[in-house]
Design brief:
Shape: globular
Oligomer: single chain
Structural class: alpha/beta
Distance between the termini: 43 Å
Number of strands: 14
Order of helices and strands: EEHHEHEHEEEEEEHHEHEEE
Strand order of the largest sheet: 5-4-3-10-11-13-12-14
Largest sheet: 8 strands, mixed
CATH superfamily: Vaccinia Virus protein VP39
Strand content: 25-35%
CATH topology: Rossmann fold
CATH architecture: 3-Layer(aba) Sandwich
């Protein structure tokens, strides 16, 4: 079942069995608002933004409203999640969002989406694993399309955001032309096991890298709900800024 909920940044359709993003939107009327608040300060009215791992569109909807004269390219490979992403773009009347049902990686070709049981009583659809290739083994899943950022041949890219469960490094490898020539600010999810490798790769493009760790729970949330269902969980991302931009920040450089 799907439910339309009122949130801080617009109405959003959620899956009732989504145990993380959907549940947070339902209980708090927001998701990752500390991330959105920080990113919003960097977004200009006419920016071109690439949102990789858009899920149902919490970030894409916010980005599109901030960059009202720009464009947002929102990528989501999971079939059912992608359908809700499209619905949320429509219900918020955002013609400047281009939705694409695809994974984003180092190259173009087939990939397998795992951990995507849409019939489960509860599931964290933001934790889906995408594996390049077309051979479905005993772990199951289904085939989706994979593209690279460079294959989009963008003429402009001001912000590149990625939350793709450890595939951020692969995405960077497939975005070398875009990063080198268009110099976007990047906001990348960084897991403990891959943060060192990811930072090293980003710095090869002459970027300064900063740590951005935020609590999943916001005690001053939109619905004023004081129950912390995340039990203090911390989201870890890196903010990557082209060295030549010389943007001042109070974040810790790594």
């Amino acid at each position: 079942m799907n439910t339309l909920v009122n949130t801080k940044h617009g109405n959003m359709f959620i899956m009732d069995n989504d145990s993380v993003i959907g549940r947070n939107l339902d209980k708090y009327g927001e998701w990752a608002d500390a991330e959105l608040s920080s990113l919003g300060k960097m977004i200009r009215d006419d920016d071109w933004i690439v949102d990789v791992g858009a899920n149902i569109g919490t970030h894409s909807v916010y980005f599109a409203k901030k960059a009202k004269d720009g464009v947002v390219f929102a990528f989501e490979p999971q079939m059912r999640v992608f359908q809700l992403l499209c619905a949320n773009v429509v219900v918020n009347d955002l013609p400047n969002v281009v939705t694409l049902q695809a994974a984003v990686g180092a190259c173009c070709g087939p990939a397998i989406a795992r951990n995507t049981d849409f019939t489960a009583k509860e599931n964290n659809f933001g934790a889906a694993v995408i594996v390049p290739g077309s051979e479905i083994d005993d772990k199951g899943g289904y085939i989706v399309n994979m593209v690279s950022v460079d294959s989009l041949q963008l003429k402009r890219c001001d912000l590149l955001k990625a939350d793709i469960e450890g595939m951020e490094y692969d995405m960077i490898c497939g975005a070398e032309r875009t990063i080198s020539e268009l110099r976007p600010i990047m906001y990348l999810e960084a897991h403990k096991q891959n943060i060192e490798k990811l930072c090293k790769k980003v710095k090869e493009f002459r970027y300064d890298v900063f740590l951005h760790a935020t609590k999943m729970f916001n005690e001053n949330n939109f619905k004023n709900n004081k129950e912390d269902i995340s039990e203090g969980y911390i989201e870890t991302n890196i903010v990557c800024i082209p060295t030549e931009r010389n943007i001042k920040t109070n974040l810790t450089q790594i």
